[in-house]
From TrEMBL:
Coiled-coil stretches: none
Chain segments carrying region Disordered: 302-391
Domain Protein kinase residue range list: 14-265
InterPro entries xref list: Kinase-like_dom_sf, Prot_kinase_dom, Ser/Thr_kinase_AS
Keyword Transmembrane helix among record annotations: yes
Enzyme Commission designation: 2.7.11.1
Name this polypeptide is given: non-specific serine/threonine protein kinase
Catalyzed reactions per annotation: L-threonyl-[protein] + ATP = O-phospho-L-threonyl-[protein] + ADP + H(+); L-seryl-[protein] + ATP = O-phospho-L-seryl-[protein] + ADP + H(+)
UniProt GO molecular function: ATP binding; protein serine/threonine kinase activity
Alphabetical UniProt keywords: ATP-binding, Kinase, Membrane, Nucleotide-binding, Serine/threonine-protein kinase, Transferase, Transmembrane, Transmembrane helix
Lineage: Bacteria, Bacillati, Actinomycetota, Actinomycetes, Mycobacteriales
Length: 435
């Protein structure tokens, strides 16, 4: 499917601004809803799915169900269409993904991992209550919005794609997070999502996924032969209660796991309470692709609300960065990062994570209270002051001449006074000089 040009209108309502994510199944565009004047994300299906009648029917059914789900921990679906273009209109997230947060900060301490999982499992439990199965739980599909709220994305789409006849000969999902029943063709239930969520918790705590293989298929089948190791065996500082959470969530038999996301969430809350984990605010990734895409402002909202076409968007490559890196649903089996070598527990690389207490959201910090004044230092004796010469704008020669003139005037006045007073009339005695 050729990319939609900026200014294209979907369903006579949604004006395309620019592509912000591309995957194997769909392309996500930033758009404006010309009726409501708000920015939205339009996920437009590629041609190979659009022309499959089975997929179109299932997509329509799934999209209607998802549009009825509205929760702060889900990326909400506002609208859908299955005409010439098959697309979903979704909430536009301008934060980042859990994958980006892990890349920035590394393995999480327990209190941070618990808060991320709490948001993700809360959203997942809403869908499980409606009988829906996500089938592609992974850090790429967990978003953190600008207010630090954790949101789960891409419900329904994965299931619709997995059931299409075009996918029956392939394992559908992301290899590192597949449940055993996704690999061996068993029945998928809410417990399948629980397994994938357990892998996510393992990765949050250790910074890696538990299995590896020389090929994607070998990687996928490794979970049929081995249990997920305890996180504390790979990295120091993980409480044993978290080991037990991961072990239960990732049990190979579905009946040995938590039944659904709500049961997993209840167990997580019990562990957090027993360990006394502090409240925590999940930080927004600082260098997220969504943030870079949102840094390109447009005037499309003003143009669309006025009934005109949206102006063409910049073709800069940064404007094409991915907003939803997990939007490739269904993701085919693909290689994963190699597993870390076995050995003694490593020291956690958690320098970017505070030890306890909430992390402030990326908003202006409130003013801090003024610190008490520091005590005044002990007085020290002042150094002796040097004499300072007076400064004059007169030259030394001029001062000397002026002084001599003044003295001469005083002497002349004195002599004149004497002459006219007594010297002029004085008698001079006769002086006789002998012959």
């Amino acid at each position: 499917m050729a990319p939609l040009a900026p200014g294209t209108t979907l369903d006579g309502r949604y004006v395309v601004d620019r592509a912000i994510a591309r995957g194997g199944m769909a392309t996500v565009y930033r758009c404006v809803d010309s009726r409501l004047g708000r920015e939205v994300a339009a996920k437009v299906m590629h041609d190979q799915y659009v022309h499959d009648p089975v997929f179109r029917d299932r997509f329509r059914r799934e999209a209607r169900a998802m549009a009825q789900l509205s929760h702060p921990n889900l990326v909400n679906v506002y609208d859908f269409a299955a005409g010439e273009n098959v697309f979903l209109i979704m909430e536009l997230i301008t934060g980042g993904t859990l994958r980006e947060l892990l890349a920035e900060r590394g393995p999480m301490p327990p209190h941070a991992a618990a808060e991320v999982m709490r948001g993700m499992l809360t959203g997942l439990s809403v869908a499980h209550d409606k009988g829906m199965v996500h089938r592609d739980i992974k850090p790429d599909n967990v978003l953190i919005d600008a207010s630090s709220r954790v949101k789960l994305s891409d419900f329904g789409l994965v299931r619709a794609a997995a059931e299409t006849t075009q996918s029956t000969d392939q394992i559908v999902g992301t290899v590192a997070y597949l449940s055993p029943e996704q690999v061996d063709g068993g029945t998928l239930t809410a417990a399948s999502d629980v397994y994938s969520a357990g892998i996510v918790l393992f990765e949050l705590l250790t910074g890696r996924t538990p299995f590896s293989g020389e090929t994607p298929i070998a990687h996928a089948y490794a979970r049929l032969r081995s249990d997920v190791p305890a996180p504390s065996s790979l990295i120091a500082g993980v409480p044993k209660l978290f080991d037990e959470l991961v072990a239960t969530a990732t049990a190979r038999r579905p009946e040995d796991r938590f039944r659904d996301a709500a049961e997993f969430l209840a167990a997580l809350d019990d562990v957090a309470a027993e360990l006394g984990l502090p409240d925590y605010t999940v930080p927004v990734p600082r260098n997220a692709a969504a943030t870079r895409a949102a840094a390109h402002p447009t005037n499309f909202g003003r143009a669309a609300s006025a009934g005109g076409a949206a102006p063409a968007a910049s073709s800069s490559s940064t404007a094409e960065r991915r907003l939803f890196p997990g939007d490739d649903a269904p993701t085919r089996v693909s290689p994963a990062a190699p597993a870390a070598p076995a050995g003694p527990p490593a020291t956690p690389a958690r320098g970017q994570w505070p030890a306890a207490g909430p992390t402030p959201a990326p908003a202006p910090s409130p003013a801090r209270p003024a610190r008490p004044p520091a005590p005044a230092p002990a007085p020290t004796p002042a150094p002796p002051r040097r004499a300072v010469k007076p400064v004059s704008n007169r030259s030394p020669v001029g001062v000397a001449v002026y002084t001599l003139v003044a003295i001469g005037v005083v002497v002349a006045v004195g002599l004149g006074a004497w002459w006219f007073g007594s010297g002029m009339y004085g008698e001079v005695p006769e002086i006789v000089v002998p012959a």
